[in-house]
Amino acid sequence: MKLSRLIANVESNDNQWALRFEPGTYMSAGSNDKAAQIFASIIEVHACSRTTAQMIYSTSWGKYQLMGFNLYGPMKLTTLPVGQFLAFPKYQDSAFLKFLVTRKYDDLEVPLGDDDWMEVFARWYNGPANVAGYVKRVREVASRLTARDAIPSANSQTAVPQNSST
């Protein structure tokens, strides 16, 4: 299963409109040079106040739940306002793939059985808190998606037994 599909389902059930405000990030978003540069970038893109920029910075956006500080930070994952970013899944996909490349990841088939890989990825993507819980969630979602993929769709061409009366 591709990493992009899996993470979109883990993070938001593949909901392109998902957003999650992180109050802890908002409260700790300081006035250091790095944060100031990101706030300036957000203010420029959105023509907004510093307070609104701090909210955008502190919110995870879209189906991959990319944090605002990553979207508008040094990686420049997007130059679009968040409304446009959310409206077009192709922009979210592009930003996610750029984000993966920064850590030498790719939209690869996820090695679900490789505990080391799973733990390293979970720590990087979701943070150091509750790595085991995130790995468990990834595996549960992968199992659910695999089971769902195994069910033939209503539109698939399946042979229907015919009654033959002779």
Tell me about this structure:
By secondary structure, this protein is mainly alpha-helical. It has a domain at about 5-110. The chain has helices at about 5-10, 25-30, 35-45, 50-55, 70, 80-85, 90-100, 115-125, 130-150; strands spanning about 20, 60, 65. Strands 1-2-3 form a three-stranded antiparallel sheet. Helix 1 (about 5-10) crosses helix 9 (about 130-150), helix 3 crosses helix 4 (about 50-55) and helix 8 crosses helix 9. The model has no long low-confidence stretch (mean pLDDT about 90).
The overall strand count is 3
Q: If you average the pLDDT, what whole number results?
A: 90
Strand content: under 5%
The major beta sheet can be summarized as: 3 strands, antiparallel
User: How is the largest sheet built, in terms of strand order?
Assistant: 1-2-3
**What would you call the shape?**
globular
Number of helices: 9
Pattern of helices and strands: HEHHHEEHHHHH
As a percent range, the share of helical residues equals: 55-70%
> Which structural class matches the secondary elements?
mainly alpha
Radius of gyration: 20 Å
pLDDT < 50 runs, ≥5 residues: none
Distance between the termini: 48 Å
